[in-house]
Amino acid sequence: MLFDWVGKNREWRNTTALWVEDMSERRLAGWHYVAKTSEIEEDVPKALRIGDLFIALYKIADRYYATDDICTHEFAMLSEGYVDGDVIECPLHQARFHIPSGKVVGPPADKDLRTFAVQVVGEDVFVEIPEE
Q1: What is the CATH number for 63?
Q2: Distance CA 25, CA 19 (A)
Q3: Whole-angstrom Cα distance, residue 130 to residue 132?
Q4: Which of 17, 72, 94, 98: disulfide with 111, CB 3.0–4.6 Å?
């Protein structure tokens, strides 16, 4: 159990939230800072590594998404692939995945990608890695 100094009256409360020095930057358990919004180009995937995970971060129509960065068909980094609308195409064998859902939309892949929640706080981008 965690206790944090929160609320208008600045009191200790039992919570799972972790606060950093600047109260505008709330960090919840499982969320990882990954980039500034200015570092992420529209339709250009950004490769991330969080612990042992390889993650691709996308900005599409001013929304942010994160998926596994490794194609489920063969070992290839999707962050090196081509974005077409809201679809990423694998650079190795052209498997296609719907970025927001991770669903396969084109062969040869037949297994969906894992997706991760993304949160933007001010200019900071966070990705949630659920605890296992």
Answers
A1: 2.102.10.10
A2: 7
A3: 6
A4: 72
